[in-house]
Specification:
Elements: E1 25-27, E2 34-38, E3 41-44, E4 47-50, E5 60-80, H1 83-89, E6 96-103, H2 110-123, E7 129-130, E8 137-138, H3 145-162, E9 166-189, E10 192-195
Parallel strand pairs: 4-9, 5-8
Antiparallel strand pairs: 1-2, 2-3, 4-7, 5-6, 5-9, 9-10
Length: 197
């Protein structure tokens, strides 16, 4: 049996791409464009870099997030012992079009990424963007787009089960419209990370 390995090429200029780490975002050393590695090949990718709004003396890092834009349509839900509590608690229901944020770097501790994913998704923030990674290093992106889309739906379901009352039945549609990559600035403090936005 013989195996033929094909070199990865830039999706913009076709120059060879190299990476010392398992990174799904590959930056071309020739033209500077970024390609997404997926399904054994490369393709162009829509991505942005958020500007840091918090200053800190700790090392600045840029953490990749998949932003999954999806429509959530709930047809029916049955809640036991908390329908009124849900209204009183003020927790809004996740309905309609949402951007779901999914941390795409496996080097970030799960307790950080889980909190960020939910907080960013619930609050739907807007970020000023910058054209390049300024004064910081880019964290390797390890999550595939399909995994991020599945995780986005999981965030919706987790949110539904965490608000007051016991969710007994839920009939819904979850339709992904688009995905993009957003790098968020963060500071590493010992073994902890804090977003810089």
């Amino acid at each position: 049996m013989s195996i033929v390995l094909q070199p990865l090429k830039c999706s913009s200029c076709a120059a060879p791409l190299k990476s010392k780490e398992r990174d799904m975002m590959l930056i071309c050393g020739h033209c500077g464009k970024t390609s997404l590695f997926a399904d054994g090949t490369t393709c162009p990718v829509d991505f942005a870099i958020a500007e840091a709004t918090v200053e800190d003396s700790h090392p600045l890092l840029y953490i990749p997030f998949w932003v999954v834009n999806a429509d959530v349509n709930v047809h029916y839900e049955k809640i036991s012992g908390g329908g009124i509590s849900r209204t009183i608690s003020g927790k809004k229901q996740m309905r309609g079009r949402y951007d779901f944020y999914i941390c795409a770097a496996d080097t970030i501790p799960e307790e950080c990424s889980r909190i960020w994913n939910m907080e960013l998704t619930v609050n739907q923030p807007e970020f000023a963007t910058i054209p390049e990674f300024r004064n910081g290093s880019r964290i390797v992106m390890t999550m595939e787009k399909e995994t991020a889309e599945n995780n986005a739906e999981f965030i919706f379901l987790r949110y539904e089960t965490e608000i007051p009352g016991t969710l007994q039945e839920l009939d819904y549609d979850f339709a992904v419209n688009a995905t993009k990559v957003l790098y968020l600035p963060a500071y590493k403090k010992a073994n902890n990370y804090q977003l810089g936005v």
